[in-house]
Amino acid sequence: MSDEKSNLSRRGFLGAGGAIMGGLALTQLPLDGAAPKGGTVVDSTMPRKWDETFDVVIVGSGFAGLAAAYEAKKAGASVVVLEKMPTAGGNSIINGGIVSAAGSPLQARMGIKDSPELMAKDMMVAGLGLNHPDLVKLISEKSTETVLWTISELGVKYLDNELVQEGGHTVKRSYKTYNSSGSAIVLPQLAKLKALGVEPRLETFVTRIYRDKDGRVKGLQIREGYEFPKADSGKLKTIRARKGVVLAHGGFGQDVAYRMIQDPKLTAKVESTNQPGATAEMWREASRIGCNIIQGDWIQVGPWASPDEKGFGLAPHFAQEAASMYGIWLDATTGKRFIDELANRKIRADAIMMLMNQGHKCIAFADAKAVSRLTPGVLDKLQKSGVVKAYNTLEAVADAYGMPRAAFLETVAKYNTNIRNSDPKNPKDDIKVSTRLPEGTVPLETAPFYVSRLLPKVHHCMGGIYTNTAAQAMDVSTDKPIEGLYAAGEATGGVHGAVRLGSCAVIDCLVMGRAAGSNAAKAKAWG
Ligand SMILES: Cc1cc2nc3c(=O)[nH]c(=O)nc-3n(C[C@H](O)[C@H](O)[C@H](O)COP(=O)(O)OP(=O)(O)OC[C@H]3O[C@@H](n4cnc5c(N)ncnc54)[C@H](O)[C@@H]3O)c2cc1C
């Protein structure tokens, strides 16, 4: 902290009394006894000197941070992107590459009726109404425009004739990148930024946000040359943000201590799909300087993951895009279906965890027709790694997973009868009732049959910094925007409420990241 000047008089004033009042009081006292002007004033120290100055300083190099950087740079601001890890992209670059857009040209070509209002309704239903309607409305309304922007402006390639129906969505509305990965978006984002002269500064850990006594955020402290996860590594420096800081630091799915404070069930035993750097330092720092952090305990556990691979892997593609959409999920102990395979993630993950607690095992099951919908190459990889296994007969499937044969055969027969007897244009069966079954659903009878084992893993943080629709971070004590501070992406809360629908995170990150970057670039500079 050698670059900081101490507020000696304040420390002296606190003295023994400060010790009695404890840390909370210490951080909330105004510096000179006067009422804070711009909201919660929690920082008594500002740097003696700034090592560098930019108009817009962005924390995090995922979808949200890169979208913010792009818009800020295009608006003429000087920009820097700070990333603590040795590679750029965060969770975004390992993401599954599925992006929702309501009322898109691809839906029109496929004869699917949809609207931003329907998408917003789906998000609010899954979110149990905890979503902030103004944010949901904005993101749904801008979804198609933003996906088209990724194509025309960034050159992102999606599959031409395929849309995904994620659980909780009423219709097929999600574009799929050509390689089933978020890297198909992040790499073009990085390339476009590089052409504009902006390259993320890697191994640069943001340790402190400077919020001055006038209430404005003015810059950051960083550790340059940081070696994750060594907290004290790297050299301390300061960066001044003349117009704004954008917090796009993502979620904390890998931070066991922080996530257990929010939800004690999520112990170290529960694996996560996230990259190792998805930790909570900036969540703590944003709280410390007076951001209103909302809904932090709504942490999504992904139901479609597999115990047979680390992290997110590829199993979710099989379990969702083949077995949920066109196949079934089973309790292997009973040989019966146990859930609407197209229900939202929380409903499905809770059901699996409940069965696991009773010693049951769950599997995702699809036939040859269902897996033909997967992105080319995905099934091969899944079979090579042993995550998905193939069987020539239903009896062989039952035997491999210790399922009672008769019960399993009856389950598949009943499902097939229901599909056969339903209206092919609006198929419905006994369990997939909460959504419209994807068109193209046919009986499960074409060998070989494919199976993956299911294990829920910590996936997404629905909570985070509360922002308005201009992506300004809001102060916990005034409910007003914190001057000079913007936030976007998984670092923010209030968009998804209790449950994030699949494919709605990318669109959230891109819409709000762009808003954060362009609004920060337009802000009045302070120095
Ligand atoms: C495996 C996986 C698959 C997914 N698939 C999909 C999908 O198909 N569709 C969908 O809509 N959503 C999906 N999601 C969710 C979605 O990918 C994330 O919500 C999204 O990528 C978050 O983007 P972001 O820009 O907010 O944060 P991130 O991409 O996580 O980027 C944040 C960055 O900030 C950095 N950072 C954090 N703290 C600091 C600090 N103190 N200093 C400097 N840098 C810091 C992190 O290291 C990270 O690189 C998936 C998530 C995962 C994990």
Automatic annotation (TrEMBL):
<keyword id="KW-0812">Transmembrane</keyword>
<dbReference type="InterPro" id="IPR050315">
    <property type="entry name" value="FAD-oxidoreductase_2"/>
</dbReference>
<comment type="similarity">
    <text>Belongs to the FAD-dependent oxidoreductase 2 family. FRD/SDH subfamily.</text>
</comment>
<dbReference type="GO" id="GO:0016491">
    <property type="term" value="F:oxidoreductase activity"/>
</dbReference>
<dbReference type="InterPro" id="IPR006311">
    <property type="entry name" value="TAT_signal"/>
</dbReference>
<dbReference type="GO" id="GO:0010181">
    <property type="term" value="F:FMN binding"/>
</dbReference>
<keyword id="KW-1133">Transmembrane helix</keyword>
<dbReference type="InterPro" id="IPR003953">
    <property type="entry name" value="FAD-dep_OxRdtase_2_FAD-bd"/>
</dbReference>
<feature type="transmembrane region" description="Helical">
    <location>
        <begin position="12"/>
        <end position="31"/>
    </location>
</feature>
<feature type="domain" description="FAD-dependent oxidoreductase 2 FAD-binding">
    <location>
        <begin position="55"/>
        <end position="505"/>
    </location>
</feature>
<dbReference type="InterPro" id="IPR027477">
    <property type="entry name" value="Succ_DH/fumarate_Rdtase_cat_sf"/>
</dbReference>
<protein>
    <submittedName>
        <fullName>Flavocytochrome c</fullName>
    </submittedName>
</protein>
<keyword id="KW-0560">Oxidoreductase</keyword>
<dbReference type="Pfam" id="PF00890">
    <property type="entry name" value="FAD_binding_2"/>
</dbReference>
<keyword id="KW-0472">Membrane</keyword>
<dbReference type="InterPro" id="IPR036188">
    <property type="entry name" value="FAD/NAD-bd_sf"/>
</dbReference>
<keyword id="KW-0285">Flavoprotein</keyword>
<dbReference type="InterPro" id="IPR010960">
    <property type="entry name" value="Flavocytochrome_c"/>
</dbReference>
<keyword id="KW-0274">FAD</keyword>
